[in-house]
Amino acid sequence: MTLAHGGGGSAMRDLIEEVFTGAFEPDGMEDQARLEAGALAEPGARLAFTTDSFVVSPVEFPGGDIGTLAVNGTVNDLAVGGARPLWLSAAFIIEEGTDFALLRRIVASMKGEAERAGVRIVTGDTKVVGRGAADRVFVTTSGVGVIPPGRDIAAAHIRPGDVAIVNGVLGDHGACILAARGDLALSSDLQSDCAGLGHLMEAILAAAPNARAARDCTRGGLASALNEMAEAAGVGIEIEETALPLRAEVKGTCELLGLDPLYLANEGRLVVFVPKAEAQATLAAMRAVDTGAGATIIGRATEGPAGQVTMRTLFGGSRIVDMLVGEQLPRIC
Amino acid sequence: MTLAHGGGGSAMRDLIEEVFTGAFEPDGMEDQARLEAGALAEPGARLAFTTDSFVVSPVEFPGGDIGTLAVNGTVNDLAVGGARPLWLSAAFIIEEGTDFALLRRIVASMKGEAERAGVRIVTGDTKVVGRGAADRVFVTTSGVGVIPPGRDIAAAHIRPGDVAIVNGVLGDHGACILAARGDLALSSDLQSDCAGLGHLMEAILAAAPNARAARDCTRGGLASALNEMAEAAGVGIEIEETALPLRAEVKGTCELLGLDPLYLANEGRLVVFVPKAEAQATLAAMRAVDTGAGATIIGRATEGPAGQVTMRTLFGGSRIVDMLVGEQLPRIC
Prior knowledge:
Two copies of one chain form a homodimer.
Chain A: H1 10-21, E1 33-36, E2 46-54, E3 60-61, E4 64-65, H2 66-80, E5 84-95, H3 100-117, E6 120-129, E7 137-147, E8 163-166, H4 172-180, H5 198-207, E9 213-216, H6 221-233, E10 236-240, H7 248-257, E11 270-274, H8 279-287, E12 296-302, E13 309-312, E14 318-320
């Protein structure tokens, strides 16, 4: 990759035609995508709009790469808010000297994940910067989706007594990236949990008509998601240490390094709050979807103290689970 | 700025609340913006969606900064396609150690430009990477707009005889960035032409109901925009060297450095093709808008050769104006 590939001229056009056009939309990625807005025309439908930059290091890791993350991260931001993901944009900042082959693998990942999620990547951009001005490839995706009429899930709706459910084991992505960096001499078979959660959210919302709110547990992990939800709802949240689904390998990594798995990043895990009466139906519906096979109840909302997350420990005690203060692991996504 | 500011925990929340929330939406930048889609509900309306990453160096320059570019670049991508810009997302990749004050200035620029353009910045993201893994700040904006029913402007609609109009002097942005880098020991009073062109495009479309197509002349300059348009329409395009609006200072810079002003980047300039019968009305309408004060006819579409752009020179000759092949100036936007 040379600076000319970002120059706006024919080298850039060749790059776009060779690497991007075939993989994404048949007509290439124009400056502007023009989309039939039929799904948005329904009275009461709302448009959902979200964006994330991805700077993960290493760019490729067991279970995925920066492209997998970029598509699923944005799909999931839409889905956990109750939106049906429709269209994605993809903007690449590429360091001069980056392998074309790497870029092709990333784009192929994006194409595959978009197909799985049922979204279209409809517009894009590429910039190339000199050596040392970026670290290989950064990808920024934005997503547009539609929130069907009458659907309104939000953290503020959580009520005391509601049940908290996660869709599978926690911390795999964080522990996998840690191992993949190599500087800790950890060897592991861990794979990132990176996955799109759109189909799972639709299954949840079909099974639990009164589902309150969901969050994906990315940067800052389950602990940060729960703290944000407790604060927005003005409730307490209590989780059970014995109920947390954790692989022995992730537990071991955390013990070795003094990390708390509650703060480890996930890229295919969400926590959803539903009324107690809908909890069993939600669990069954989640377990019928591949990304929800490991669904399990981890706790509940309580009267308070408002905004506080507590964990009942293995030994019967209770400890406060705070927001993450510093940085557990940079460039996790 | 420290890595903790990108960690997903409380330091990041403080950063978002302190720097972004006040400047952008009153409710802060949530993971997902939820927007009333009334403008899109009109039968026949289409949604326009676009994205661009900005990596300009230096980050601040006479007439603007990376924030000015990020808002106007995306607004203009929407506007030149006939869309009314509505909502923007903003994703920041920030190098560790970057000044908070710089970030605040960039965000203030974005707020001001968004207000001028009549768009709302409704969602965002921040990532922090280590020293040397990025060059201060990169900003990626995406934009959503609505194309009113029946409006359809596209390069493919250009017909022989159509008139090409630009909205002002060319190359100021490119020449200004060149001078601002300092390594050429150029001193100049040039300012970037960076500006939002949404209001200008609405004036053009009101005056020229049969306007064919418009492009903003960013990376690759006027020459690249015209080449793309000639190719898409299967027409020739002929421009007049004597008609090109260029400041003496920009001409001088180009002569000194062996650059061609046709390839210099602009960030507030567009070229629009209208039927000859609508050209005078278009000119008058453009000149009534501040960003169109310098509107002037520069050429016309011809029977061909298809896809070829030619320039009638000062001396009565004719030369082919090709796509830019290499890179005239990296990190111009």
